[in-house]
Design brief:
The protein is mainly beta and about 150 residues long. The protein is built from one helix and eleven strands; from the N terminus they run E-E-E-E-E-E-H-E-E-E-E-E. The strands form four sheets. The protein has a four-stranded antiparallel beta sheet with strand order 2-11-6-8, with no helix packed on it. The longest helix has 7 residues, at about 70-75. It starts with 7 loop residues before the first strand and ends in a 27-residue tail after the last strand.
Length: about 150
């Protein structure tokens, strides 16, 4: 298994480093924790701080994803999912939470609020063509697979 070393800075003394419950062999995502108390009204959203900044190396990105338990139990999701952390971003990781539930939901310091997945990406260089190779899908358009 490949390990990527990423510099991380605590911007708050209460900030917790991202953790995985079962280790990198079983968990792709690392839990992100709140350093703030924020109450989300029903159908409202807020930016919640983690108190952390990271320096992702070139060729990689951070993806901030929702936690399935918060969604299932309380209707809490990410407003922009997944949120992207670019390699050049050095400010605080903040999580845009939205409450799809019918009751207010309070996030407290130390609560797990999202997951962080670090992934590699490829730089793209477009090559304009007059036609593209055929695929098994054929001319079927958006939504044509029947799912």
């Amino acid at each position: 298994m490949h390990h990527l070393e990423i510099p991380i800075k605590r911007l708050s003394p209460d900030a917790r480093l991202p953790t995985s419950a079962h280790g990198p062999e079983e968990d792709a995502g690392l839990d992100l924790y709140s350093v703030e108390e924020v109450t989300l009204p029903p159908h409202g959203w807020a930016s919640v701080g983690t108190g952390l900044a990271i320096a992702i190396p070139a060729g990689h990105e951070g993806q901030v994803r929702p936690r399935s338990g918060l969604a299932r139990k309380f209707g809490i999701a990410l407003l922009n999912s997944p949120g992207t952390i670019d390699p050049g971003y050095r400010n605080e990781i903040r999580v845009l939470l939205i409450n799809h539930g019918q009751e207010p939901y309070t996030v407290r310091p130390g609560d797990r609020i999202a997951q962080l997945v670090i992934g590699a990406y490829s730089a793209v260089r477009w090559r304009v063509e007059e036609s593209l190779a055929e695929s098994r899908r054929g001319k079927g358009g958006f939504g044509s697979t029947g799912s």
